Amino acid sequence: MWRWWDGQAWTPHIANGTARKPRLPAWLSVPVIPCGLLVALTVVILGAGAPLAILLGLVPLCIVIPVLQWLDRVEPEPRSARVHAFLWGATVSVVVSSLVNGVVAASVGETAAAIFSAPVVEEGTKAIGIWYAVRRRELDGVMDGVIYAGWTALGFAVVEDFLYFSDASADGSLLELFIVRALLTPFAHPLFTAWTGLAVGLAVARGRKLFPRVLAGYALAVLSHLVWNASLFVTDSQDGSVFLGVAVVLFVVLFVLAAVALYVFRRREQARFVRLVPILAQRYGLSPPEVAVFGDWKGMLAARRSLDRRQRRSFDRLHAALARLALLHARAGDGHPAGEIDRAAEAVLVDQLQQARRP
Protein backbone atom coordinates (compact mmCIF):
# COMPACT_ATOMS: atom_id res chain seq x y z
CA MET A 1 0.00 0.00 0.00
CA TRP A 2 1.21 3.52 -0.76
CA ARG A 3 1.11 6.68 1.30
CA TRP A 4 -0.92 9.23 -0.60
CA TRP A 5 0.84 12.21 0.97
CA ASP A 6 4.37 11.43 -0.27
CA GLY A 7 4.06 8.39 -2.47
CA GLN A 8 6.35 6.21 -0.36
CA ALA A 9 5.62 2.63 0.58
CA TRP A 10 3.85 2.37 3.92
CA THR A 11 5.20 -0.06 6.49
CA PRO A 12 3.74 -0.56 9.97
CA HIS A 13 7.16 -0.87 11.65
CA ILE A 14 8.94 2.49 11.49
CA ALA A 15 11.43 3.10 14.27
CA ASN A 16 10.60 6.76 14.83
CA GLY A 17 6.86 6.19 14.59
CA THR A 18 6.35 9.08 12.17
CA ALA A 19 4.69 7.02 9.44
CA ARG A 20 1.02 6.28 9.65
CA LYS A 21 -1.35 4.12 7.70
CA PRO A 22 -2.96 6.00 4.79
CA ARG A 23 -6.60 6.86 5.29
CA LEU A 24 -7.43 6.76 1.59
CA PRO A 25 -7.52 3.72 -0.69
CA ALA A 26 -4.86 3.44 -3.37
CA TRP A 27 -7.26 4.43 -6.16
CA LEU A 28 -7.96 7.79 -4.51
CA SER A 29 -5.93 10.89 -3.60
CA VAL A 30 -6.67 14.13 -1.81
CA PRO A 31 -6.95 16.34 -4.95
CA VAL A 32 -9.39 13.91 -6.56
CA ILE A 33 -11.98 14.18 -3.76
CA PRO A 34 -13.13 17.83 -4.01
CA CYS A 35 -12.73 17.90 -7.78
CA GLY A 36 -14.63 14.63 -8.04
CA LEU A 37 -17.55 16.07 -6.10
CA LEU A 38 -17.72 19.06 -8.45
CA VAL A 39 -17.56 16.87 -11.56
CA ALA A 40 -20.13 14.42 -10.20
CA LEU A 41 -22.56 17.25 -9.48
CA THR A 42 -22.02 18.67 -12.96
CA VAL A 43 -22.59 15.29 -14.63
CA VAL A 44 -25.81 14.77 -12.65
CA ILE A 45 -27.10 18.18 -13.75
CA LEU A 46 -26.15 17.51 -17.38
CA GLY A 47 -27.71 14.06 -17.24
CA ALA A 48 -30.99 15.47 -15.98
CA GLY A 49 -31.20 17.84 -18.93
CA ALA A 50 -29.62 15.70 -21.66
CA PRO A 51 -29.42 12.01 -20.68
CA LEU A 52 -28.57 10.95 -24.23
CA ALA A 53 -25.44 13.12 -24.12
CA ILE A 54 -24.17 11.23 -21.08
CA LEU A 55 -24.87 7.84 -22.65
CA LEU A 56 -23.11 8.78 -25.88
CA GLY A 57 -20.19 10.17 -23.90
CA LEU A 58 -19.55 6.68 -22.53
CA VAL A 59 -19.09 5.15 -25.99
CA PRO A 60 -15.36 6.02 -26.26
CA LEU A 61 -14.77 3.90 -23.15
CA CYS A 62 -15.82 0.82 -25.12
CA ILE A 63 -13.30 1.69 -27.84
CA VAL A 64 -10.28 2.92 -25.90
CA ILE A 65 -10.27 0.66 -22.82
CA PRO A 66 -9.72 -2.61 -24.75
CA VAL A 67 -6.71 -1.04 -26.47
CA LEU A 68 -5.23 0.13 -23.16
CA GLN A 69 -5.77 -3.32 -21.65
CA TRP A 70 -4.06 -4.95 -24.62
CA LEU A 71 -1.07 -2.62 -24.29
CA ASP A 72 -0.93 -3.34 -20.56
CA ARG A 73 -0.79 -7.11 -20.97
CA VAL A 74 3.02 -7.36 -20.99
CA GLU A 75 3.37 -5.85 -17.50
CA PRO A 76 -0.10 -5.46 -15.95
CA GLU A 77 -0.46 -2.33 -13.87
CA PRO A 78 -2.42 -2.42 -10.59
CA ARG A 79 -6.10 -1.77 -11.07
CA SER A 80 -6.07 0.83 -8.29
CA ALA A 81 -3.32 2.79 -10.09
CA ARG A 82 -5.23 2.74 -13.39
CA VAL A 83 -8.42 3.85 -11.67
CA HIS A 84 -6.58 6.71 -9.98
CA ALA A 85 -5.12 7.84 -13.30
CA PHE A 86 -8.59 7.80 -14.88
CA LEU A 87 -10.13 9.68 -11.97
CA TRP A 88 -7.34 12.25 -11.98
CA GLY A 89 -8.03 13.06 -15.61
CA ALA A 90 -11.80 13.08 -15.10
CA THR A 91 -11.72 15.29 -12.03
CA VAL A 92 -8.57 17.31 -11.28
CA SER A 93 -7.62 17.90 -14.91
CA VAL A 94 -11.18 18.83 -15.85
CA VAL A 95 -11.75 21.23 -12.95
CA VAL A 96 -8.39 23.02 -13.13
CA SER A 97 -8.51 23.28 -16.93
CA SER A 98 -12.07 24.58 -16.88
CA LEU A 99 -11.21 27.28 -14.37
CA VAL A 100 -8.06 28.45 -16.16
CA ASN A 101 -9.59 28.27 -19.63
CA GLY A 102 -12.62 30.15 -18.37
CA VAL A 103 -10.47 32.96 -17.02
CA VAL A 104 -8.49 33.16 -20.26
CA ALA A 105 -11.67 33.15 -22.34
CA ALA A 106 -13.14 35.97 -20.27
CA SER A 107 -9.91 37.96 -20.46
CA VAL A 108 -8.68 37.59 -24.05
CA GLY A 109 -11.40 35.62 -25.84
CA GLU A 110 -12.51 32.07 -26.48
CA THR A 111 -10.20 31.67 -29.47
CA ALA A 112 -7.08 32.17 -27.38
CA ALA A 113 -8.48 29.88 -24.70
CA ALA A 114 -9.21 27.07 -27.16
CA ILE A 115 -6.02 27.26 -29.18
CA PHE A 116 -3.39 28.32 -26.64
CA SER A 117 -4.64 27.99 -23.08
CA ALA A 118 -6.41 24.63 -23.40
CA PRO A 119 -3.45 22.61 -24.76
CA VAL A 120 -1.01 24.06 -22.21
CA VAL A 121 -3.22 23.64 -19.15
CA GLU A 122 -4.92 20.38 -20.07
CA GLU A 123 -1.69 18.60 -20.99
CA GLY A 124 -0.04 20.04 -17.89
CA THR A 125 -2.68 18.73 -15.51
CA LYS A 126 -2.69 15.34 -17.22
CA ALA A 127 1.10 15.23 -16.89
CA ILE A 128 0.74 15.67 -13.13
CA GLY A 129 -1.55 12.63 -13.12
CA ILE A 130 1.22 10.59 -14.76
CA TRP A 131 3.69 11.97 -12.24
CA TYR A 132 1.49 10.64 -9.44
CA ALA A 133 2.14 7.13 -10.75
CA VAL A 134 5.88 7.86 -10.60
CA ARG A 135 5.58 9.09 -7.01
CA ARG A 136 3.77 5.92 -6.05
CA ARG A 137 6.48 3.90 -7.80
CA GLU A 138 3.99 2.21 -10.10
CA LEU A 139 5.49 3.57 -13.31
CA ASP A 140 8.75 1.82 -14.13
CA GLY A 141 9.02 1.58 -17.92
CA VAL A 142 8.28 3.20 -21.26
CA MET A 143 5.07 1.29 -21.87
CA ASP A 144 3.90 2.15 -18.35
CA GLY A 145 4.22 5.84 -19.21
CA VAL A 146 2.02 5.36 -22.27
CA ILE A 147 -0.51 3.35 -20.26
CA TYR A 148 -0.91 5.92 -17.50
CA ALA A 149 -1.04 8.71 -20.07
CA GLY A 150 -3.84 6.86 -21.83
CA TRP A 151 -5.91 6.33 -18.70
CA THR A 152 -5.47 9.92 -17.53
CA ALA A 153 -6.36 11.32 -20.95
CA LEU A 154 -9.34 8.99 -21.29
CA GLY A 155 -10.80 10.23 -18.01
CA PHE A 156 -10.45 13.81 -19.18
CA ALA A 157 -11.91 13.07 -22.63
CA VAL A 158 -15.00 11.34 -21.25
CA VAL A 159 -16.02 14.28 -19.05
CA GLU A 160 -15.19 16.72 -21.84
CA ASP A 161 -17.47 14.72 -24.15
CA PHE A 162 -20.25 14.98 -21.58
CA LEU A 163 -19.95 18.77 -21.71
CA TYR A 164 -19.68 19.02 -25.49
CA PHE A 165 -22.47 16.54 -26.19
CA SER A 166 -24.76 18.30 -23.74
CA ASP A 167 -24.24 21.62 -25.55
CA ALA A 168 -24.65 19.92 -28.95
CA SER A 169 -27.93 18.32 -27.94
CA ALA A 170 -29.32 21.80 -27.34
CA ASP A 171 -28.38 23.17 -30.77
CA GLY A 172 -29.14 20.04 -32.80
CA SER A 173 -25.58 19.07 -33.73
CA LEU A 174 -25.25 16.09 -31.40
CA LEU A 175 -25.08 13.43 -34.13
CA GLU A 176 -22.32 15.15 -36.10
CA LEU A 177 -20.26 15.87 -33.00
CA PHE A 178 -20.71 12.31 -31.72
CA ILE A 179 -19.43 10.85 -34.99
CA VAL A 180 -16.35 13.07 -34.99
CA ARG A 181 -15.39 12.86 -31.31
CA ALA A 182 -16.60 9.43 -30.21
CA LEU A 183 -16.29 7.32 -33.36
CA LEU A 184 -13.62 8.92 -35.54
CA THR A 185 -11.26 10.45 -32.96
CA PRO A 186 -11.78 8.72 -29.59
CA PHE A 187 -7.99 8.40 -29.24
CA ALA A 188 -7.31 12.12 -29.65
CA HIS A 189 -6.52 12.95 -26.02
CA PRO A 190 -4.65 9.66 -25.36
CA LEU A 191 -2.49 10.35 -28.40
CA PHE A 192 -1.72 13.90 -27.27
CA THR A 193 -0.78 12.88 -23.75
CA ALA A 194 1.12 9.78 -24.92
CA TRP A 195 4.06 12.06 -25.77
CA THR A 196 4.33 13.11 -22.13
CA GLY A 197 3.93 9.53 -20.94
CA LEU A 198 6.62 8.39 -23.35
CA ALA A 199 9.07 11.00 -22.04
CA VAL A 200 8.31 10.10 -18.44
CA GLY A 201 8.63 6.38 -19.14
CA LEU A 202 11.97 6.82 -20.90
CA ALA A 203 13.35 8.88 -18.02
CA VAL A 204 12.24 6.34 -15.42
CA ALA A 205 13.44 3.35 -17.44
CA ARG A 206 16.88 4.92 -17.82
CA GLY A 207 17.08 5.98 -14.18
CA ARG A 208 17.20 9.67 -15.08
CA LYS A 209 15.52 12.66 -13.43
CA LEU A 210 12.17 13.60 -14.92
CA PHE A 211 13.05 17.26 -15.30
CA PRO A 212 13.94 18.64 -17.73
CA ARG A 213 13.62 15.50 -19.88
CA VAL A 214 9.84 15.41 -19.55
CA LEU A 215 9.56 18.88 -21.06
CA ALA A 216 10.26 17.56 -24.57
CA GLY A 217 7.36 15.12 -24.38
CA TYR A 218 5.12 17.74 -22.83
CA ALA A 219 5.99 20.20 -25.61
CA LEU A 220 5.03 17.65 -28.27
CA ALA A 221 1.79 16.91 -26.43
CA VAL A 222 0.93 20.62 -26.32
CA LEU A 223 1.89 21.12 -29.97
CA SER A 224 -0.22 18.23 -31.26
CA HIS A 225 -3.13 19.35 -29.10
CA LEU A 226 -2.77 22.93 -30.29
CA VAL A 227 -2.74 21.93 -33.97
CA TRP A 228 -5.85 19.80 -33.49
CA ASN A 229 -7.77 22.53 -31.67
CA ALA A 230 -6.69 25.11 -34.26
CA SER A 231 -7.96 22.91 -37.10
CA LEU A 232 -11.33 22.54 -35.41
CA PHE A 233 -11.53 26.30 -34.85
CA VAL A 234 -10.82 27.05 -38.51
CA THR A 235 -13.51 24.56 -39.47
CA ASP A 236 -16.05 26.18 -37.19
CA SER A 237 -15.19 29.71 -38.22
CA GLN A 238 -15.20 29.06 -41.97
CA ASP A 239 -17.77 26.28 -42.09
CA GLY A 240 -15.16 24.19 -43.88
CA SER A 241 -16.40 20.61 -43.97
CA VAL A 242 -13.59 19.76 -46.40
CA PHE A 243 -11.00 21.09 -43.95
CA LEU A 244 -12.55 19.03 -41.17
CA GLY A 245 -12.38 15.95 -43.37
CA VAL A 246 -8.71 16.51 -44.05
CA ALA A 247 -8.01 17.05 -40.34
CA VAL A 248 -9.82 13.81 -39.42
CA VAL A 249 -7.93 11.87 -42.10
CA LEU A 250 -4.61 13.23 -40.86
CA PHE A 251 -5.56 12.29 -37.32
CA VAL A 252 -6.47 8.76 -38.40
CA VAL A 253 -3.11 8.45 -40.19
CA LEU A 254 -1.33 9.66 -37.05
CA PHE A 255 -3.27 7.15 -34.99
CA VAL A 256 -2.32 4.29 -37.33
CA LEU A 257 1.36 5.25 -37.19
CA ALA A 258 1.25 5.46 -33.39
CA ALA A 259 -0.58 2.12 -33.20
CA VAL A 260 2.07 0.44 -35.36
CA ALA A 261 4.86 1.90 -33.23
CA LEU A 262 3.22 0.74 -30.00
CA TYR A 263 2.61 -2.71 -31.49
CA VAL A 264 6.30 -3.06 -32.39
CA PHE A 265 7.40 -1.82 -28.98
CA ARG A 266 4.99 -4.15 -27.23
CA ARG A 267 6.29 -7.13 -29.21
CA ARG A 268 9.84 -6.26 -28.16
CA GLU A 269 8.86 -6.08 -24.49
CA GLN A 270 6.98 -9.35 -24.84
CA ALA A 271 10.01 -11.09 -26.38
CA ARG A 272 12.29 -9.64 -23.70
CA PHE A 273 10.05 -10.95 -20.92
CA VAL A 274 9.95 -14.47 -22.38
CA ARG A 275 13.72 -14.43 -22.90
CA LEU A 276 14.35 -13.51 -19.26
CA VAL A 277 12.00 -16.10 -17.73
CA PRO A 278 14.78 -18.73 -17.42
CA ILE A 279 16.98 -16.21 -15.59
CA LEU A 280 14.10 -15.36 -13.25
CA ALA A 281 13.46 -19.06 -12.67
CA GLN A 282 17.04 -19.71 -11.69
CA ARG A 283 17.39 -16.66 -9.46
CA TYR A 284 13.98 -16.72 -7.75
CA GLY A 285 13.15 -20.42 -7.71
CA LEU A 286 10.21 -20.58 -10.08
CA SER A 287 8.60 -23.97 -10.37
CA PRO A 288 8.69 -25.92 -13.67
CA PRO A 289 4.95 -25.28 -14.27
CA GLU A 290 5.49 -21.53 -13.78
CA VAL A 291 8.39 -21.57 -16.23
CA ALA A 292 6.30 -23.52 -18.72
CA VAL A 293 3.43 -21.02 -18.49
CA PHE A 294 5.33 -17.74 -18.50
CA GLY A 295 8.05 -18.90 -20.87
CA ASP A 296 5.49 -19.28 -23.68
CA TRP A 297 3.57 -16.08 -24.41
CA LYS A 298 0.69 -17.67 -26.32
CA GLY A 299 0.47 -20.43 -23.75
CA MET A 300 0.38 -17.84 -20.95
CA LEU A 301 -2.54 -16.01 -22.58
CA ALA A 302 -4.37 -19.29 -23.14
CA ALA A 303 -3.83 -20.28 -19.51
CA ARG A 304 -5.15 -16.93 -18.33
CA ARG A 305 -8.29 -17.24 -20.46
CA SER A 306 -9.06 -20.59 -18.82
CA LEU A 307 -9.22 -19.03 -15.32
CA ASP A 308 -12.18 -17.49 -13.56
CA ARG A 309 -12.17 -13.83 -12.49
CA ARG A 310 -10.70 -14.43 -9.03
CA GLN A 311 -7.98 -16.70 -10.38
CA ARG A 312 -7.15 -14.18 -13.09
CA ARG A 313 -6.48 -11.51 -10.49
CA SER A 314 -4.00 -13.80 -8.75
CA PHE A 315 -2.48 -14.76 -12.09
CA ASP A 316 -2.07 -11.10 -13.06
CA ARG A 317 -0.38 -10.27 -9.76
CA LEU A 318 2.13 -13.07 -10.34
CA HIS A 319 2.66 -11.98 -13.94
CA ALA A 320 3.13 -8.34 -12.91
CA ALA A 321 5.71 -9.26 -10.26
CA LEU A 322 7.68 -11.35 -12.76
CA ALA A 323 7.43 -8.65 -15.43
CA ARG A 324 8.82 -6.00 -13.09
CA LEU A 325 11.67 -8.27 -12.08
CA ALA A 326 12.36 -8.90 -15.77
CA LEU A 327 12.45 -5.15 -16.36
CA LEU A 328 14.86 -4.73 -13.45
CA HIS A 329 17.20 -7.28 -15.02
CA ALA A 330 16.79 -5.74 -18.47
CA ARG A 331 17.90 -2.35 -17.13
CA ALA A 332 21.13 -3.91 -15.87
CA GLY A 333 21.66 -5.51 -19.30
CA ASP A 334 21.72 -9.06 -20.53
CA GLY A 335 24.48 -11.14 -19.02
CA HIS A 336 25.06 -8.71 -16.17
CA PRO A 337 26.57 -9.86 -12.88
CA ALA A 338 24.08 -10.08 -10.03
CA GLY A 339 25.79 -7.25 -8.18
CA GLU A 340 24.69 -4.71 -10.78
CA ILE A 341 21.02 -5.09 -9.92
CA ASP A 342 19.41 -2.52 -7.64
CA ARG A 343 19.19 -4.69 -4.54
CA ALA A 344 16.69 -2.47 -2.73
CA ALA A 345 14.30 -2.50 -5.67
CA GLU A 346 14.85 -6.23 -6.11
CA ALA A 347 13.94 -6.91 -2.47
CA VAL A 348 10.63 -5.08 -2.86
CA LEU A 349 9.80 -6.92 -6.08
CA VAL A 350 10.79 -10.29 -4.65
CA ASP A 351 8.43 -9.65 -1.73
CA GLN A 352 5.67 -8.88 -4.23
CA LEU A 353 6.49 -12.09 -6.08
CA GLN A 354 6.32 -14.14 -2.91
CA GLN A 355 2.97 -12.62 -1.97
CA ALA A 356 1.63 -13.27 -5.47
CA ARG A 357 2.71 -16.92 -5.31
CA ARG A 358 0.82 -17.57 -2.11
CA PRO A 359 -2.36 -19.59 -2.75
List the helices and strands and how they pair.
Blueprint: H1 32-49, H2 51-57, H3 59-71, H4 79-108, H5 110-135, H6 142-171, H7 174-184, H8 188-205, H9 213-238, H10 241-284, H11 288-294, H12 297-305, H13 309-332, H14 343-357
Helix pairs in contact: 1-2, 1-4, 1-6, 2-6, 3-6, 4-5, 4-6, 5-6, 5-8, 5-9, 6-7, 6-8, 8-9, 9-10, 10-11, 10-13, 13-14
Keyphrases for this structure?
359 residues; 2 domains; 14 helices; 0% strand
Structure at a glance:
By secondary structure, the protein is mainly α. 77% of the residues lie in helices and 0% in strands.
Give the number of DSSP strands.
Answer: 0
- Mean pLDDT over the full residue set: 85
**Percent of residues in β-strands:** under 5%
State the order of secondary-structure elements, H for helix, E for strand.
HHHHHHHHHHHHHH
What radius of gyration results from the CA coordinates?
22 Å
Structurally, how many domains make up the residues? Answer: 2
**Secondary structure tally, helices:** 14
Major sheet: none
The helix fraction, in percent, is over 70%
Taken from the alpha-carbon principal axes, the silhouette is: elongated
Structural class: mainly alpha
Instruction: List low-pLDDT spans.
Output: 1-19
Distance from first to last alpha carbon: 20 Å
Description:
With 359 residues, the protein is mainly α. It has 2 domains: 32-239, no CATH class; 269-357, no CATH class. 77% of the residues lie in helices and 0% in strands. It is built from 14 helices and no strands. The protein has helices at 32-49, 51-57, 59-71, 79-108, 110-135, 142-171, 174-184, 188-205, 213-238, 241-284, 288-294, 297-305, 309-332, 343-357. The longest helix has 44 residues, at 241-284. Mean pLDDT is 85; it is low at 1-19.
